[in-house]
Amino acid sequence: MDLKSLVRTIPDFPKPGILFRDITTLLRNPEGLRYTLDTLTQKCQQAGLEADYVVGMESRGFIFGPPLAYHLNAGFIPVRKPGKLPAAVHSVEYELEYGMDQLEVHQDAFHPGSRVLIVDDLIATGGTAGATARLLQQIGCELVGFAFIIELRDLGGRQQLPDAPVVTLIEYE
Question: Which of 2, 56, 60, 113 has a CA positioned 20 to 30 A from the CA of residue 84?
Fold first, then answer.
């Protein structure tokens, strides 16, 4: 299946010069969504990415993380923006193009040595995924890999990630 044909490209969003890759058109297509989840699961299994938990970042990581966790027989753990989680949290700050941001995860989400797979819809500069990986490694998790639907290769996001397998379905230069 040609997944690229199901992803809408919106020029100049959210600012001039950006080509936004919109997955809502992929999500609304039942065959495309099924194919995406089945193929992502298969690629993760083929790469040997056996995890105790699939970790998804707010917010689009929440779309693909739970069904992937289900298919991989793993739990799902959300990583959220500040102030969204009700219990004690671990947090990490990371740099954005203009300023700083922060991610949080519950302190009781993982047991020591938990094997984790980080999933999101897209990797661009790698800032959010890289920060999530640092956060999880700081609290004693074993990073088994990353899974993304889309990779924007020309932005060099892989270089911002720790050395771990990366699975992607669609690549744009």
Answer: 113
The tens digit of pLDDT for each residue in 20-65 reads 999 999 999 999 999 999 999 999 999 999 999 999 999 999 999 9
Verify whether residue 60 is a known catalytic residue: yes
Which one from 50, 58, 60, 142 is the annotated catalytic residue?
Answer: 60
CB-side neighbour CA atoms (13 Å) of 36:
27
Q: Reply yes or no on whether 97 is catalytic.
A: yes
How far is Cα 136 from Cα 26, in angstroms, rounded to an integer? 30
| 141 vs 134: CA distance, rounded Å | 10
Claim: this prediction has a pTM higher than 0.90: yes
Which tokens sit at 2?
């040609």
